[in-house]
Specification:
Blueprint lengths: L6 H17 L12 E6 L10 H10 L6 E5 L4 E5 L1 H7 L12 E5 L7 H12 L6 E4 L8 H12 L3 E4 L1 H9 L3 H31 L6 H11 L15 E3 L4 E3 L21 E6 L1 E3 L2 E2 L2 E7 L3 H19 L8 H14 L13 E2 L6 E5 L13 E12 L6 H4 E11 L7 E2 L8 H4 E3 L20 E2 L7 H35 L40 E3 L4 E6 L2 E6 L3 E9 L2 E8 L23 E7 L3 H28 L17 E8 L9 E5 L3 E5 L5 E5 L3 E7 L6 E14 L2 E11 L17 H31 L7 E2 L7 E3 L8 E5 L3 E4 L6 E4 L3 E7 L7 E8 L7 E7 L3 H10 L3 E4 L6 H11 L1 H6 L3 H5 L25 H14 L21 H15 L8 H23 L1
Parallel strand pairs: 1-5, 3-4, 5-6, 12-18, 30-33, 38-41
Antiparallel strand pairs: 1-2, 2-3, 7-10, 8-9, 9-12, 10-11, 13-14, 13-15, 15-16, 16-17, 18-19, 20-21, 21-22, 23-24, 24-25, 26-27, 26-32, 27-28, 28-29, 30-31, 31-32, 34-35, 35-36, 36-37, 38-39, 39-40
Helix pairs in contact: 2-6, 9-10
Subunit structure: Component of the FACT complex.
InterPro entries: Creatin/AminoP/Spt16_N, Creatinase/aminopeptidase-like, FACT-SPT16_Nlobe, Fact-SPT16_PH, FACT_SPT16_C, FACT_SPT16_M, Pept_M24, PH-like_dom_sf
Protein name: FACT complex subunit
């Protein structure tokens, strides 16, 4: 074999070693105060698979040089070896990037290398203090040459320290060349597992052949030497097995790396296999578990193990200690199945590279060594000693689960899994053998891998399908029962700690005053209209309306006016002014001057004959004045409740990460304009082109979202805040920065080109490239923000598009695509946005879940009972099961019913009775669970929930409506229909229709055989006649 050493690689890596040694040479540091470094390599030892000396030779030279001594000194490198090896090393002296003098010594038999040994000792004594040398003391090199040197070194009187931990740390970080070699080794391991072992194992199981673990392991090891059959374009000379594959089954499992395959036959139950391929001396490893005829418990345990492994992999980020991987897996296990904690392996892997297993870099509970970018790990995790209570054979009663993958740590983001070509999803590793009575094709797995069926990807018969669905529903129901108990306990704790509860009765409200004295009345000839006692006057300065009553002008402040309408009928104009008036209930707050027995004016109607110019003008002026006053009060109220953010700490020196040419919503300057989003020390700043600034402090950000442009026209980052901020004159808790990656609409007037037009294709390609570029820019900025958020630990959430559904959110009357996320359920594309944090949700209720209906509604009841529940309506019924599963996975209790509930009355009743009493009486179970069993004919029964007011309680219901009108005068309709809004807002269409029928029957106006269209017209006519009579009586 022609040996050629890469000089550039040698000196680059030697320089890396020398710098690390020089920087950490202190007595308490990595290199333990060594003044010189000695690496000795004896004769070849076939029993010694891995050693630090061999690893360092491979790392520096690309080959192992037996019977060679390398000494690294402060200002030189000295090598003693055979004449032939020295010839291989000679070109290194003249390499362009040589950083140190290289002295090459040839072994001499004449004096048994006495002169050479003396030169080596002299080099050690002349390096730094010359008192301590670093050696690989735990290794036992063989050969007369090395033994003679070790004897001479012992006579030299130099102190020795162990070099192995420092070399392990040095070799753990892989450069680009090493990483590429490691990836090829990992791919080879994965393909041997997936293309050879799995196929061979399936054939053995399918044909029920008796093959021992040992035989199958030997066959798998031989497959490594034939890469062409695996589809690998690698030289067989560069490939070898790291160890003989370990295959286990039949209840006897040993998950340690030192385990071996037994000579017992493969048992068709739980089968574990681990194997490793070495490519150009770099090791990789992969381990999988395959389960034949699994139980649901085994499925849950396997999926849990996959979660634990993923948690460990995700924890391997630069800067964290190695123990973080073990802690991540352990914490996930404790949260899911704490009873399995003792079953977990003592570590979850080790560093891997030239050596298969680095014992000083283990992923266990104690390792404080920090992860660095470029490190590679064999993340191997297992659950041992598990029991299958359904097993009929003792060999299947005890089993273990094992997963192993080779991963490479990146500078940013989770590590790359290099062995992903060996699938480990449940459907890839679980099989169901066809019973003897099944159809011939019933047990076949698609493809070329025998007659074995894979669960979840092929049917096992209608009966089993129904059984699986039943088991899934049963598990869901059990978890929901647990959540119900937990929900009640958490709510009671929250109430008792004072964190939640209904607001107490409001205190006396301020009475708006039009004029404090008669001198403030508008005077004739002034700015106001001449005072005529038979005309209405609107005084904008005093914000009041003067109404003629018995020849006198009576002032009313504009704040007391709830609504005003203008109608014309039979030559007369009617101006109807509705005032804010309290309901008859004593619980409602009253003005300070009011007494319990005082009377209030609820409305006034003014009539004028002819053109009614004065009433028309008054109507217009009142509308304008009310709008202006309400806007001013709203702004004042918004600013009053604002919480001051901490000042933004600007980065004055160094690089400021920016996202350029982005838009912000709501607009900062009132107009849409692209600006710049900057990352600073404790927050973000948006700089508009005209100089306007918008600052967001990290501490005020409750949730952050990154939504790439996949099927949308926008790529965006969205922030949901703890406390609202003012942007212009608008208070908002949501701020969004976005870029449009394509036109939202096209002009249909312009001539369209054909789909095959080159210009059209080029335009589409440009759009795709721009979209991809913006997605990458936003993603890079998001990572910078996450890193720069410091102690706040801001993490961006990306909505799950695959779980999304179309529905109508409460703040947007059009259908939108709503997507669940890790921490919220959101719709971020079309404003007004929809964002409900999961931590704010108390319970969820599915409404209109009736067989035959194509859609349903989802109501989210928030923990703050003073806030109206959130309803998403018109969701396609195909999303019902997936939404239930998602809510259950988020530990949110849900109920379902066949009709819409009156949530306004429900929340009022709960607050009226007190939350503690509400939960003591059963809580939401009493309110919502009974709705599951309701039938349409039971709506009028005496056993109806107290939250559904009966006809006998109509007076109380009406008072509630009046209460709403008095407390919130900003939500009324400005149209004419608000005059006749006495119907209960809690009744749905069917109830109103039944009520109308009963009323018509009483009046003798309802005809049973009448067509719906005719009936509707007649009813409308009756209401119009009744309204006209009412207006004339008021006049």
């Amino acid at each position: 074999m022609d040996i050629k050493i890469d000089g550039q690689t040698f000196w680059e890596r030697l320089s890396k070693l020398h710098k690390s040694w020089t920087a950490g040479r202190g007595p308490e540091e990595l290199w333990k105060g060594a003044d010189a470094l000695i690496v000795e390599r004896g004769t070849d030892n076939e029993e010694e698979l891995y050693s630090k000396s061999a690893s360092l030779h491979t790392w520096l030279l690309g080959y192992e040089f037996p019977e060679t001594i390398i000494i690294v000194c402060a200002k030189a490198v000295v090598v003693l070896s055979s004449k032939k090896k020295v010839q291989y090393l000679e070109p290194l002296k003249t390499a362009e990037n040589a950083t140190l003098p290289l002295e090459l010594l040839v072994r001499e038999k004449a004096d048994n290398n006495a002169a050479n040994f003396e030169r080596l000792l002299s080099a050690c004594r002349s390096s730094h203090a010359g008192a301590t040398v670093g050696t690989l003391g735990k290794e036992q090199p063989q050969g007369e040459f090395i033994l003679g040197w070790k004897a001479k070194l012992a006579e030299g009187g130099l102190a020795a320290v162990e070099l192995a931990p420092a070399l392990a740390d040095l070799l753990a970080v892989k450069d680009h060349t090493e990483a590429q070699t490691l990836k090829r080794a990992a791919i080879a391991s994965a393909l041997v597992m997936a293309k050879y072992f799995q196929g061979e194992m399936e054939e053995v199981v399918d044909k029920e052949r008796k093959v021992s673990h040992e035989t199958l392991a030997d066959q798998t090891e031989q497959a490594i030497s034939d890469p062409a059959k695996l589809g690998l374009k690698l030289s067989p000379d560069d490939l070898q097995s790291c160890y003989t594959p370990i295959i286990q089954s039949g209840g006897e499992f040993d998950l340690r790396p030192s385990a071996s395959s037994t000579d017992k036959p493969l048992y068709f139950s739980t089968i574990t296999c681990s194997l490793g391929v070495r490519y150009k001396q770099y090791c990789s490893n992969v381990g999988r578990t395959y389960i034949i005829n699994p139980t649901k418990t085994q499925e849950r345990h396997y999926k849990l193990l996959a979660e634990l492994q993923q948690a460990a992999i995700d924890a391997l980020r630069p800067g964290v200690p190695l123990k973080a991987a073990y802690e991540a897996a352990l914490n996930r296990l404790k949260s899911k199945r704490p009873e399995l904690e003792k079953k977990l392996t003592k570590n979850v892997g080790t560093a891997i590279g030239i050596e298969f297993r680095e014992s000083t870099l283990q992923l266990n509970a104690k390792s404080e060594v920090r992860v660095q970018a470029g490190m590679a790990f064999n993340v191997a995790i297992g659950l041992e000693g598990l029991e299958d209570k359904e097993a009929t054979d003792k060999r299947a009663a005890s089993y273990a689960l094992f997963l192993a993958d080779t991963v490479l740590v990146k500078e940013e983001g989770p590590p790359d899994v290099l062995t992903e070509k060996a699938p480990k999803g449940w459907s890839d590793v679980s099989y169901n053998l066809a019973e003897e009575g099944d159809d011939e094709d019933g047990g076949k797995r698609g493809g070329k891998r025998g007659d074995v069926e894979v669960l979840e990807s092929r049917t096992r018969g209608a009966g089993n399908k129904m059984s699986e669905a039943a088991e899934k529903n049963e598990a869901l129901a059990e978890h929901q029962l647990e959540l119900e108990s937990r929900l009640r306990q958490e709510a009671l704790e929250r109430i008792r700690s004072g964190q939640s509860g209904p607001a107490g009765p409001a205190g006396p409200i301020e009475t708006p005053v039009a004029y404090k004295s008669a001198d403030q009345y508008p005077q004739p000839g002034g700015s106001a209209t001449s005072l005529r006692t038979n005309q209405t006057i609107v005084d904008g300065r005093a914000e009041s309306v003067l109404v003629p009553v018995f020849g006198r002008l009576v002032p009313f402040h504009i704040a007391t006016v709830k609504n005003v309408t203008m109608t014309e009928e039979t030559g007369y104009h009617y101006l109807r002014i509705t005032f804010v008036a309290p309901p008859p209930t004593t619980a409602a707050p009253l003005p300070k001057e009011a007494q319990a027995d005082d009377h209030f004016i609820k409305e006034l109607t003014l009539k004028a004959k002819g053109q009614g110019a004065n009433l028309k003008n008054t109507f217009r002026l009142i509308k304008e004045l009310r709008k202006r006053v309400q806007q001013r009060e709203k702004e004042a109220k918004d600013r009053q409740n604002l919480v001051t953010q901490e000042p933004l700490q600007l980065i004055r020196t160094g690089k400021i990460h920016r996202l350029r040419d982005v838009f912000v919503r709501p607009n900062v300057g009132g107009k849409k304009a692209a600006g710049e989003l900057q990352l600073h020390a404790n927050g973000l700043r948006f700089q508009a082109p005209r100089g306007e600034k918008l600052d967001l402090a990290f501490k005020n950000i409750k949730l952050a979202f990154f939504q790439p442009a996949e099927k949308e026209v926008l790529v965006l980052v969205h922030f949901h805040l703890h406390d609202p901020i003012m942007i212009g004159k608008k208070k908002t808790k949501d701020v969004q920065f976005y870029v449009e990656v394509m036109e939202a609409s096209y002009s249909l007037d312009a001539a369209r080109r054909s789909g095959a037009d080159p210009d059209e294709l080029e335009e589409e390609q440009r759009e795709r490239q721009y979209r991809n570029r913006m997605n990458l820019e936003f993603q890079a900025f998001v990572k910078r923000v996450e890193e720069g958020s410091g102690e706040v630990g801001l993490e961006f959430d990306t909505p799950y598009r695959e779980l999304g559904f179309y529905g109508v959110p409460p703040h947007n009357k059009s259908t939108c695509y709503i997507m669940p996320a890790v921490n919220a359920i959101v719709e971020l594309t079309e404003p007004p946005w929809f964002c409900v944090p999961l931590v704010d949700i108390e319970v969820a209720h599915f409404e209109r879940v009736v067989y035959g209906l194509k859609n349903f509604d989802l109501v989210l009841v928030l923990k703050d009972y003073t806030v109206k529940p959130v309803m998403v309506s018109a969701i396609n019924v195909e999303h019902l099961d997936s939404l239930k599963g998602w809510l259950d996975s988020c530990n949110i209790k849900f109920y379902e019913g066949n009709c819409n509930l009156n949530w306004g009355n429900i929340m009022k009743t709960i607050q009226g009775m007190g939350l503690e009493e509400f939960y003591d009486d059963g809580g939401w179970k009493n309110v919502l669970a009974m709705d599951d069993d309701d039938e349409e004919g039971e709506e009028e029964s005496d056993d109806e929930s107290e939250f559904e007011p009966s006809d006998e309680d109509s007076e109380e219901e009406e008072s509630d409506d009046d209460d709403d009108e008095y407390e919130d005068s900003e939500d009324e309709d400005s149209g004419e229909e608000s005059l006749d809004s006495d119907e209960s807002e809690g009744k749905d269409f069917d109830e109103l229709e039944e009520e109308a029928k009963r009323e018509d029957k009483k009046r003798g106006r309802y005809e049973e055989d009448e067509k719906p269209k005719t009936k509707g017209k007649k009813k409308s006519q009756d209401y119009s006649e009744s309204e006209s009579e009412t207006k004339r009586s008021l006049a």
